[in-house]
Design goal:
The complex is a heterodimer. By secondary structure, chain A is mainly α. In chain A, 74% of the residues lie in helices and 0% in strands. Chain A has helices at 11-37, 50-79, 85-110, 122-151. Chain B has one domain. In chain B, α7 packs antiparallel against α9. Classes of the chains: A mainly alpha, B mainly alpha.
């Protein structure tokens, strides 16, 4: 594999590192802020389906892998002087937005894993959650597409 | 239990003796690996003795299992006991050890898929059948459960990472994927324990125990991913265009 000291030499690896980091960061944020600090999310909710538990387990395990793998990829890109920050940030926003949207729509609503908060009117919370996710996803996708056309290989 | 104390002391003495022989042969042995061995033996012994061995309390039981099945195995793997033995033993004996390691039986047992089924599958059997309740009534059965959790955890850790010779070790992406799947199965089981406590376990204690299981092993899980990453980085270094090393991967 050849690599030149050029920020655009490894587009796939920059994108991959961003996607993994985005997923890892959102999962960590979700766990720390919503589960542990605010105690809004519940560890388990009587409405949770079995497929919800499988989905939760897979994402919880994968998010550790994603965070660690992303940091090793970042170190590698820096060492090879192949870091392309805009593309990486694009990937990060796509990864973060996609997981946030999956969490908000599929895990919270479809699988009944848990709700964002209990004993409140849920609709505003759900709207803010999923619109935030959508905005992250769109901004990230724009960045990813923009860096792809500029690089044109 | 005197058996546990005797085994722990024996494990420490054998390692110290091997280390002494290796150093006398002027082949050296890092002190930090010896510290890992001492730490691993101590953690396993503490999990099997003391207040954590009060298995009528599901919370203590679960802390004990995280120590016995995850932390102690990681420390023991980092202590590289097989590498030490190969350095310390006479050549003929070292060759026999090496032949055993290369055998197909050891190859099958140290595949991370097999080891993951033994380690995490064993936990599913323990908590989703009547085995846990039975082990509360029969001390011998409880002892066997502990031994299995410890040895299967050690085997799984060795199948993934560590400096000891592992001629059959699976490819890096396979190991990473199996680690993710094994941890997912572990996390799913933890939430199942919250939802449906094993027979005879107080639901409040089960709720705490389930969260100990879900979150308690996280530092060890991250350490395993980091060790896989270190290996990946080393391999990348070997194929680095800026510092090529010909003919080696």
């Amino acid at each position: 594999m050849s690599s030149t000291p050029d920020g655009r030499a490894q587009p796939g690896r920059n994108l991959g590192a961003g996607l993994l980091l985005g997923l890892g960061v959102v999962a960590f944020f979700d766990e720390t802020v919503f589960h542990q600090l605010l105690h809004w999310h519940h560890f388990y909710d009587r409405s949770t389906t079995d497929v919800g538990l499988v989905s939760d387990g897979l994402f919880h395990a994968f998010s550790w892998f994603a965070t660690v793998a992303a940091l090793f990829l970042l170190a590698q890109l820096r060492r090879d002087r192949a870091l392309h920050v805009r593309r990486l940030v694009g990937g990060l926003l796509v990864g973060a937005g996609a997981f946030q949207l999956y969490d908000g729509l599929v895990q919270h609503k479809l699988f009944g894993l848990h709700q964002i908060r209990y004993d409140v009117a849920l609709l505003p919370y759900d709207l803010v959650w999923n619109i935030t996710a959508g905005v992250l996803l769109v901004v990230g996708a724009v960045l990813v597409l923009a860096t792809r056309t500029r690089q044109a290989r | 239990m005197t058996v546990v104390v005797a085994l722990a002391i024996a494990a420490a003495l054998v390692y110290a003796a091997l280390m002494g022989r290796a150093r006398r042969r002027e082949r050296g042995w890092p002190t930090w690996r010896a510290a890992c061995w001492a730490g691993g033996v101590a953690v396993a012994a503490v999990a099997a003795l003391g207040p954590l061995a009060d298995h009528m309390d599901f919370r203590a039981h679960m802390i004990g299992h995280v120590l016995l099945g995850m932390l102690a195995p990681l420390l023991l793997v980092l202590a590289a006991p097989v590498t030490l033995a190969l350095r310390a033993l006479p050549v003929a004996a070292a060759r026999r050890v090496s032949a055993v390691l290369r055998s197909s039986v050891v190859g099958a047992a140290t595949h991370p898929g097999v080891a993951a089924v033994l380690a995490v599958g064993g936990l599913w059997v323990l908590y989703r059948t009547g085995l846990y309740a039975a082990s509360m009534r029969h001390p011998t059965l409880l002892l066997l459960v502990h031994v299995h959790v410890f040895l299967a955890g050690w085997l799984f850790t060795h199948s993934l990472v560590g400096p000891d010779p592992a001629p059959h070790r699976a490819r890096l992406p396979v190991r990473a994927a199996l680690l993710v799947l094994a941890l997912a199965a572990h996390d799913i089981l933890a939430k199942m324990l919250y939802a449906h406590p094993p027979a005879g376990v107080d639901p409040a204690a089960a709720a705490v125990g389930a969260q100990v299981m879900y979150y308690g092993g996280a530092p060890v899980e991250v350490a395993l991913f980091v060790l896989l990453g270190v290996e990946w980085r080393r391999r990348q270094g070997l194929t680095d265009v800026r510092a090529p090393l010909s003919g080696r991967r």
